[in-house]
Amino acid sequence: MLWDRGVTRRARTAPIIRETLRDSVQVREIFDSLLRNGARASLRTQGQALAARPLFDPGAGWCWQLDDVTDSEIEVEIALEGCYSLYQLRVLNATREGERLITPLPDTMVRTRRRMHRRVQADANDVLRDARGGGLGTYRLGTLAHEGFSFEAQSRRLYDVGETVEQLELHASDGAVFSVVGEVRSISPARLEGGYSYGVQLIGEPAAAGARWRDWIHGRLYPTIQTGPEHNDSVWQLFADAGYFSLSGKRPEEFEPDKVSYFDFTRSCARARDIGARIVVPSARGAEASKGFIKPYSTTWLNQHMARRRDGGAPGRRMLREMYFAAYEPLLLDEDCKWILAMCEGTVSWTKMAHLAFARDYEGIGEAYLQAFRLMEMTAAPLTEEPRGDLRIARASADQREQVLDHLVRTRSRIYLESLDLLPETFDLEAVSRRWGQAGLERERALYIASRDGRALAAAIIERGTPGSNLFRLVDAVRLVKLAPLVADEQEEIFAQLLAAAADYFHRHGHRAFDYYREGADGRHTDGLRDLGPGTMCVFSHAVLPDFLDHVYRITRPSEGGLS
Question: Are residues 178 and 56 part of one domain?
Answer without folding.
Answer: no
